[in-house]
Amino acid sequence: MQTYVIIMIILVVGGTLFDTIHKGSATYFFNNWRKSREKGTGDVNTVSLAIQTVASEVLTSSEFCSQKRRIAHLLGMYGFVAYALATFMMVMFYPTPATPTPAIWPLLWWIGGLAVCVGGYWFWLFIRVDVSAEGHSPFRVVRADLFILSLLASCTLGLIWAYMQAAGNSWTNIALGGYLLATTVLFGSVPWSKFSHMFFKPAAALEKRVSKANGTRNNLPEPVDRTNPADRDRHSMELLKDAPLDMGLGIKREAPRHY
What we know:
Elements: H1 2-23, H2 25-39, H3 46-58, H4 67-93, H5 104-127, H6 129-132, H7 146-167, H8 172-188, H9 197-213, H10 229-232
């Protein structure tokens, strides 16, 4: 099992590097970063912006507008971290009865796996855009679903295997085989799944903050501020000069239902 865990780590690292090289993600990111620095007009404290990015986009997933989607994402993210960390600790440091496992690690493993299942199945069955807004069946599967489905399969089969093992069920080895197969697909399919986005998204969020702070804004125009007289009196804003600043929910008044 220790060898298996090490192989899975190698697959994640290798798959992420391959994905980065194949898609040119790193080249794109560093080119954007260089252009932003060259065109920027303001002083930027990159360390401060990195801390803000970690605190906001990474740890609290603040980029999600939907609270349901945000909660489901946080359950899945923190659940997966606890589940993976506990697995690593138990396999690598407490592999046999000769070194009894502290109770915290099995507890974290169970909590993490259950959190992934709650957040993942909630997202898969009810929150996904193509299900909630477009009316597709929750059982419709495309390649983009590889990550979430293999993650759910790994955690679900892992929990079933652990329960069977504790109960002394004769099907334990079959459940273990399914668990290992799903976990291998999860960590071995990085170049074809969305697994590596967990590494790319923080970098993209940091680059966005830097471009906003130095004034380049990725070549996007400055948002209109109608409390600013210079913005308010522009010809293009003439019809909105006397309109209330808060004009209600607009298109957000009703959830999209296109089916």
